[in-house]
Amino acid sequence: MRRIVFTVSLAMSFSVLVMPVVASAQTACPGGATAGSRLCGPDGAPQNFQVVRYDAHGAVAYSTSSDLFYYTTGANSGGMPSVRADAMTQCLQDGNQDCNLLGTWTNSCATFATVLVDGAKQPLFTTGSNSRKSRRTAKAECERLAPGEKCRVRKTECIFFRTDLVPY
């Protein structure tokens, strides 16, 4: 009797080692069913994804009469033409008639500043790979335009691309 039990248990353990085991999760369950219950079905095949990059764009407009900067940013929002139009629209909707587009930037930082040049405020727009570089460039430009005058940094705005996983 002992010999038969030992032989059967040896045969069973050997078959477990030889037979491939396929594991599949059962998480496709109807509402209220717990994963793994007999009501659940096997998961479907995994989806394939690709990485999609969305560049970020920014534009800034300035009104001399109000001494205000109007900027807009967006990622995949119609691109550069869209942010240019949005910045100008914001400026004009505030009732300004002297709106000028100062510049645009993509996936970087921008600094808006003003400095007095011959008694008149001069708006400045500079860019850099980070906020420190952008500000440093603005201050250097202020010093170049009006040596010794105070550079008033009004805003630094950084925008960078974003990525998404999109099924295909």
UniProtKB/TrEMBL annotation:
Pfam families noted in UniProt: DUF4189
**InterPro entries linked to this entry:** DUF4189 (IPR025240)
Does the keyword Signal feature in the UniProt annotation? yes
Report the residue ranges that make up the DUF4189 domain in this protein.
57-158
The alphabetical list of record keywords is: Signal
Query: Which residues, if any, are the signal sequence?
Result: 1-25
Q: Which domain of life is it from?
A: Bacteria
Designated name of the protein: DUF4189 domain-containing protein
> What is the source species?
Stenotrophomonas koreensis
